[in-house]
From TrEMBL:
UniProt entry tagged with the keyword Secreted: yes
PROSITE patterns: RNASE_T2_1, RNASE_T2_2
Pfam families found in the cross-reference section: Ribonuclease_T2
Protein EC: 3.1.-.-
Subcellular location, principal: endoplasmic reticulum
GO terms of molecular function: hydrolase activity; ribonuclease T2 activity; RNA binding
Listed name of the protein: PolyU-preferential ribonuclease CL1
Length: 199
């Protein structure tokens, strides 16, 4: 029984392993209930159920981590691992509803506004964690979870990678608390690098 949902955005330039031209905007990683995985192993992904969402799915929910894989594999993984659990909520109880509602929430918390606030990707600029948090909190009225890759050897800056928003079952924003693995939660004292191109 889960109590909240996480909408994870990732910064393709940071998370891409073998991308040629990663998107230069935040993309969706997934919409995840806080508990449970693979809740219904018999409910298989069927891409035809989301065919009318396809152009938005390709644009906003590409597989930037494994760019060489068939892109529907990523959506299949997200549905079977997380969507089948989220489906206990009537508003998310089909593949069509799960994917379209995720796209809707992604537009609702559009991270494009970071640019308007003067926080933009670059190859030489570093930001303070406090400045990024302040902008996000001011804009949304809640604090999302910001995750970074730790500094590489010989460097002092961490790299911005993922921003997670938390929603109640009523799909209202709430402040994020629990850490999730994958990337570590950013260190408040280290400068933050927001890369504009893959190293």
């Amino acid at each position: 029984e889960w109590s909240k949902l996480y909408l994870a955005h990732h910064w393709p330039v940071t998370v891409c392993k073998d991308c040629q031209d990663p998107p230069e905007y935040w993309t969706i990683h997934g919409l995840w209930p806080d508990k449970g995985e693979e809740c219904n192993r018999t409910w298989h992904f069927n891409v035809t159920e989301i065919k009318d969402l396809m152009s938005d799915m390709r644009r906003y929910w590409p597989d930037v981590i494994h760019s060489s894989l068939n892109r529907t594999q990523f959506w299949k993984h997200e549905w079977e691992k997380h969507g089948t659990c989220a489906a206990t909520l009537p508003i998310l109880n089909s593949q069509k509803k799960y994917f379209s509602k995720t796209l809707e929430l992604y537009q609702l918390v559009n991270l494009g506004f970071l640019l308007k606030a003067g926080i933009k990707p670059g190859s030489t600029t570093y930001y303070q964690m406090a400045a990024i948090k302040e902008v996000l909190t001011e804009f949304y009225g809640i604090t999302p979870k910001i995750q970074c890759l730790p500094p590489e050897e010989g460097e002092e800056a961490q790299t911005l990678g993922c921003i997670e928003f938390s929603f109640t079952k009523e799909l209202e924003l709430r402040t994020c608390t629990e850490p999730k693995e994958e990337l570590s939660v950013c260190n408040d004292t280290l400068p933050v690098y927001y890369p504009s191109q893959v190293k």
